[in-house]
Specification:
Strand content: 15-25%
CATH superfamily of the largest domain: Ribonuclease Z/Hydroxyacylglutathione hydrolase-like
Largest sheet: 9 strands, mixed
Number of strands: 18
Radius of gyration: 29 Å
CATH architecture of the largest domain: 4-Layer Sandwich
Distance between the termini: 108 Å
CATH topology of the largest domain: Metallo-beta-lactamase, Chain A
Strand order of the largest sheet: 1-16-15-2-3-4-5-6-7
CATH class of the largest domain: Alpha Beta
Length: about 475
């Protein structure tokens, strides 16, 4: 008799008993897993404790409030298309122009956050919080005119927060920004460690560039007005103009001289916080309370996985996080303490789809309200007193700067004149270049086709604009009283 024959001769009850045993074992294992794995017990017994913090919203999500919705001024509900939406009065728009510290990628530039305050006109009031590497390209793609980029608040002097400043300011002047650039930032433990010292030596570094561009009409555009505040000051006021206040407080980021900012737009009753870089701290929890949009830096806390992926010891990742940064768990804790209408994380390394769930789970360990990552670039948030809406910007791959508008050259409140004369260059090339170099230039007639040849313009001709004529050519009519 074979073994199979023996098995066939066994009573059916034995097989039934084996099946019952296996079922019972599986149930026991399942119960053990349910007790050890978060969420499994709830799923098994149908007693899920998760609730929408904003109140029951069947079909409305578990973390979304009623006020997360678009409104008529939002022309496209799915993407933001620069240049297609006039920002209405009493509406704020926040754009993450850059969102990473290191490494820079095609998806993320160095950290920079643009806050725009609507006035119902084509050019809203703008404030820039940090100006990290590559962020200017996104600002230009967002149709922000280079001459109108101003009021830049630097949180601290890590280069990923100001690297585009030395690159940008000469080109701003070259592009028609004929008035001084305004920059704000903290002092340091010594004068050499403050923002004034940095800007002074940045300009010294750029001296060749500045003098070279002085062969063009730049006016006072190379000048930089620096407001340096005491880094130790808590809730200090560094900007107060036309109903907008910006306050600051110190942050723990290894070295003295790192700051956070809060902008309050009093006329509209809207507010914004950018923590800058640093460890989770009591001051950010204190001064961020009740803000509309609270943006924290953030770092995923998976040092073991980082070690496996990148090779560096896990202890190095732990050390770096624990002296420099805010892990996602702590960002969620800050959100819980401050209770913003919208919470966001910027200045983070986008770890890709594989870690999106883990990243969000770490935030959700403490915060169950409205939340988003301020990246990859460029994410946009619109804010009113009644609603908030977020989208990704749809940007061109190539150069697409805003077309020049003569109104950019006017001072605030100044009426459009009949003529605008461009500034005379202060240092023509004859004063900064040896004659023999010009003598070595090839005669243009040798390389121009006859039908394309034009006489070179190498002496400043004096240029006067007719602003109304320029605007009418673009279909823009301006009242004589404006």
């Amino acid at each position: 008799m074979t073994q199979d024959d023996k098995n066939q001769d066994k009573p059916a009850g034995n097989e039934q008993g084996r099946r019952n045993f296996l079922k019972g074992s599986a149930a026991a294992v399942g119960a053990g897993l349910a007790a050890s794995v978060p969420g499994m017990a709830s799923a098994a017994d149908g007693d899920c404790e998760m609730k929408n913090p904003y109140g029951a919203r069947p079909g409305g999500g578990i973390s979304l409030p009623d006020y997360y919705k678009p409104w008529p001024a939002i022309k496209n509900r799915n993407v933001y298309m620069p240049g297609t939406e006039i920002l209405p009065k009493n509406e704020m728009r926040i754009s993450f122009l850059g969102s990473t510290p290191w490494p820079p990628t095609r998806l993320q530039s160095g950290t920079s956050i643009l806050v725009e305050l609507g006035n119902g006109e084509s050019q809203p009031r703008r404030f820039f919080f940090d100006l990290g590497n590559g962020s200017i390209s996104n600002a230009i793609a967002m149709q922000v005119p280079a001459p109108l980029i101003n009021d830049i608040f630097i949180s601290h002097l890590h280069s990923d927060h100001f690297a585009d400043l030395p690159y940008f300011y000469p080109f701003r002047a070259f592009s028609g920004g004929y008035t001084p650039l305004r920059v704000y930032g903290p002092s340091g433990r010594t004068p050499e460690l403050g923002i004034k010292h940095m800007v002074k030596h940045m300009r010294e570094m750029n001296r060749w560039h500045e003098e070279n561009f002085n062969a063009c009409p730049i006016g006072d555009g190379m000048e930089i007005e620096v407001t340096e505040f005491d880094w130790k000051e808590e809730n200090g006021l560094c900007y107060d103009k036309d109903g907008v206040k910006v306050r600051h407080w110190p942050r723990s980021h290894v070295k003295d001289g790192a700051s956070a900012y809060r902008l309050d737009w009093e006329d509209a009753g809207l507010s914004f916080v950018w923590t800058g870089d640093g460890r989770p701290d009591e001051l950010s929890a204190k001064y961020g309370k009740g803000v509309d949009v609270f943006v924290s830096e953030g770092t995923i806390d998976v040092p073991q996985l980082s070690s496996m992926k990148l090779g560096a010891p896990a202890e190095l990742w732990e050390y770096t996080i624990d002296i420099f940064h805010t892990m996602y768990y702590a960002a969620g804790y800050l959100f819980k303490q401050t209770q913003p209408r919208m919470a966001a994380i910027c200045h983070y390394e986008y770890a890709g789809p594989a870690l999106e769930a883990e990243s969000t789970a770490e935030v959700r360990s403490n915060w169950d309200g409205l939340f988003m990552f301020g990246g990859p670039d460029v994410q946009v948030i619109n804010v009113t007193k009644d609603a908030i809406w977020s989208r990704e910007a749809l940007l061109p791959d190539g150069a697409a700067p805003a077309s020049m508008d003569p109104r950019w050259l006017l001072k605030p409140g100044e009426k459009l004149p009949a003529e605008i004369t461009l500034p005379t260059p202060r240092l023509p090339r004859e004063k900064q270049q040896e004659q023999f170099l010009r003598d070595l230039e090839i005669d243009p007639k040798l390389y121009y086709p006859p039908d394309a040849y034009r006489k070179p313009v190498q002496k400043w001709p004096g240029i006067t604009l007719n602003p109304r004529e320029m605007l009418e050519a673009r279909g823009i009519k301006v009242d004589n009283d404006k």
